[in-house]
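Q: What structure does this chain adopt?
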Amino acid sequence: MRKASIILVCSALMACAGGPTVYAPAHESNRGYSEQQIESDRFRVRFDGGSDVDYRELEDMVLRRAAELTLEQGGDWFIVVARSRDGDDRNPVRVGGSVGRSWGSRGYSGSGVGIGISLSPGAGDKSFSLEILIRQGQRSNEPDAYDARGVLAQYS
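A:
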């Protein structure tokens, strides 16, 4: 019975754990990059990740995809006009425990130990989005302007 319980808990943990966040299109899984064209030179680029990455890593991956998209569209640089992030950094599996001791009348006492596992599918899932304008020619000196080839050299 004890082995069956352990196997059941391990199976549940593996079922709740999503695959690792990798740099790939999101259509193959619930993680990865996607983009949406808003206007001819304006795009929303998004990267969805799991609890295995933090927001900084997601931002790096979405900047990389924005740079690739800029070059694919014939641009040289892009400017970020909006940034947003969604989700949380919670771990989808949490383990807790407690120890207790009590005393009663006539010298009786008792103690107990409790262990709990919390499974929260979807906890830790997060996304980072950029809205970009694609430009050609000499890069602007604006603070949120990025040279596409420079970004790819840094993040590839």
